[in-house]
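User: We ran a pulldown and think these components assemble together. Before we commit to crystallization trials, I'd like a predicted model of the whole complex to look at. Sequences follow.
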Amino acid sequence: MTVTEAPQAVADPPLRKASTRKRLVPYWLLLPGILWLLVFFALPMVYQASTSVQTGSLEQGFEVTWHFQTYWDALKEYYPQFVRSLLYAGTATVLCLVLGYPLAYLIAFKAGRWRNLLLILVIAPFFTSFLIRTLAWKTILADDSAVVAALDALRILDVTNWLGWTEGNRVMATPLAVVTGLTYNFLPFMILPLYTSLERIDTRLHEAAGDLYATPATTFRKVTFPLSMPGVVSGTLLTFIPASGDYVNAELLGSTDTRMIGSVIQSQYLRILDYPTAAALSFILMAVVLIMVTVYIRRAGTEDLV
Amino acid sequence: MSWLRRNLVVIAGLCTLAYLIVPNIVVTVFSFNNPTGRFNYAWQEFSLDAWKDPCGVADLCGTLSLSLQIALWSTIGATVLGTMIAFALVRYRFRARGAVNSLIFLPMAMPEIVMAASLLALFLNMGIELGFWTILIAHIMFCLSFVVAAVKARVLSMDPRLEEAARDLYAGPVQTFVRVTLPIAAPGIAAGALLSFALSFDDFIITNFNSGNTVTFPMFVWGSAQRGTPVQINVIGTAMFVIAVLVVVAGQFISSRRQKSAKP
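Assistant: Here's a predicted model for the assembly, 570 residues in total across the polymer chains.
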């Protein structure tokens, strides 16, 4: 007691003197980073908004004319790509959840001393360029590959053909290839949040559920899954949002019939140089995603996402 | 059958793991290929040529070194700025805290292409020439939020009484920060830095929009998907995977040894 009280008595007056300077400390800490985000994240949105209501051409220059018609025209022309993007991203998200959950569960509860190794195996592919890994799928799903032959032999291709995901004996350049690539690329973003929230669950709850005569399936449904909801919510968001704007998988593994909205925005901005349409499309994508995310968070009811 | 049912989770989990790892195995195997055409998608014959001469393709190692430089600088930038923000958010109560939190969260909740396109709109409208600097600016911007999240998580779980104890023992604010706070926050900062490095090095979409004529490594790979993929790309992909595993294993090893020495 005496040890802790003595320095405080001495330190009291200078502490109070420094308090006004101290109150400014957080602001000084925030200033450079927040300024960076305001100038290079928030301000660009303003510029994009202004670009989307400009008219003109590259030769004559662009001018703000409040031409909102661009939004309507862009939506009318490219709604198939919008719908397709949301469909593919949604399918990939569901697949990520279905495939990722067992692995996250395995790492969190069953891996024992293999836990760190498995985690490393989930994270390490991150560090090989994802473009190189996506190109590897061209080999895996090539027309004469063993995987495609196996899918054909197991009659799975008949089912996917019937669903319209594949065509004939091909997987490459079909929706299935694009969704496979999307699922693969965003799977770690699902597994890691799932693992984090599963790992926090007290295993004694499982024992308690067992003691109360719950079957493993009931324990999962009533205890484990609800407690892992924060991971499910942040995992699905971390997969769905980037997947909806992705164009790499659609371009590398798909065909013109599987183009996603990202491809359209990219070619409008970088090849066709129709900046207003590109800006409008990208705003529509942002709005759709933000609305869907907000509704989803409201319904799932998880506030602490970051 | 009952064995299958009991181990269903393990089997399903390992299948997912295989799904994650198989492309890496394919990349590695095809780094020993000797393709006849321009594309390295079908197996022809075993060869060590690409491993002997990883820089044998024009521009490949130049773009690789450019990507490494950009990743290094954006890691430094994002880690410094992000760590400062994380400390401010965890340690201080101030007005506009909610607004700052949303501003940090938004870049992570936005499709990458939207950020990419809006940055391009800014640069085009302001007449800024695209290249090294615009790439660096963009990379620091999108890495920042991830650093904040990583450091915040670590600082939040930190016991503030440790710093009080240091002050009770007559450590000055600077001394407390350097000797107590920083070492405890270090794993979070390291995780944030590692993540920024990986994100920046691997970024394609934002770079594709804001690089002008500058070609980074991912853009080289993207171009090669159309022109023909040299085997050297697989060599570099394999090397990156091995280095990453080694770095992560070393990190695990160091932290487990530290934990052991901390517990007498």
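The first strand of chain A starts at residue 54 and ends at 57. That may be worth checking against your pulldown data before setting up trials.

User: Thanks, that helps.
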